[in-house]
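lol forgot to send this yesterday, sorry. struct tokens for the thing we talked abt
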């Protein structure tokens, strides 16, 4: 028993990095039974952030460790997107950032334990098929950035995709002012990536909003995008009650956003 215990602990040290989380099924595949898991929790070799979830202790659990674990340890095709991806890549460093919602994107719902974690942040899941139903994730969609002491890989939407994901949250979950400020700092987006993403994006609202903000700020990449090749739909779209109608894209926007220059 002692020899087996030492062997299993060695396996944990080799396969489970300190701080990352795994579920009971993952430990079962490693040969660690429920009784052994309970023993490791009692002896503090493992801790349980919530029922059915385990980690080797390494400071306080942070949301980045959870997102990394979902993809790298549990093989879930989930990445960080939208506002959270932009924050992680430094686009919101001059804004008052609200870190309490972390936006995750994927083709299927994440495990139910995600909502039970006691963290300062909550996770909000978005189905990737909503905006890009025919698109498979590729180099134009996500990138890997280093996070933490051991340079773990955090998978996030590219800035181009993250902006489109962000626009999908208007007007209910994001503010026009914050999006306007973020777009003001988006001077280095790739027009090639944007063209591919806008082609596969099925949301007329998102595409109209994108060109509305792009026209406002007139970054160099805007001149390399021909809006005429994208399906922007027809008719008016009311996004803000009591707002003004933008005559170019036929969407209502807040009065506080001045007319296009």
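and heres what i got for the seq, position by position
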């Amino acid at each position: 028993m002692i020899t087996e215990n030492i062997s299993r602990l060695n396996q944990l040290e080799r396969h489970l990095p300190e701080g990352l989380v795994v579920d009971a099924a993952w430990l079962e595949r490693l040969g660690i039974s429920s009784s052994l898991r309970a023993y490791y929790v009692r002896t503090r070799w493992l801790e349980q952030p919530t029922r059915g979830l385990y980690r080797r202790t390494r400071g306080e659990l942070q949301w980045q460790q959870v997102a990394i674990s979902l993809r790298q340890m549990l093989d879930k095709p989930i990445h960080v997107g939208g506002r959270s991806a932009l924050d992680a890549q430094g686009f919101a460093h001059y804004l008052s950032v609200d870190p309490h919602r972390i936006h995750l994107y994927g083709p299927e719902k994440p495990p139910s334990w995600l909502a039970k974690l006691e963290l300062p942040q909550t996770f909000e899941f978005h189905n990737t098929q909503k905006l890009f139903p025919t698109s498979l994730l590729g180099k134009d969609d996500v990138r890997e950035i280093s996070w933490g002491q051991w340079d773990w890989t955090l998978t996030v939407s590219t800035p181009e995709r993250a902006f489109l994901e962000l626009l999908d949250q208007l007007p209910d979950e994001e503010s026009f002012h914050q999006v306007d400020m973020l777009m003001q700092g988006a001077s280095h987006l790739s027009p090639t990536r944007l063209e591919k993403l806008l082609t596969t994006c099925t949301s007329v609202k998102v595409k109209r909003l994108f060109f509305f903000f792009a026209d406002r700020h007139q970054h160099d990449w805007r001149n390399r995008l021909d809006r005429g090749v994208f399906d922007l739909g027809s008719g008016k779209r009311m996004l803000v009650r009591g707002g003004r109608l933008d005559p170019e894209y036929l969407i209502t926007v807040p009065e506080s956003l001045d007319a296009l220059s």
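The mean pLDDT is 91. anyway ping me if u want another try
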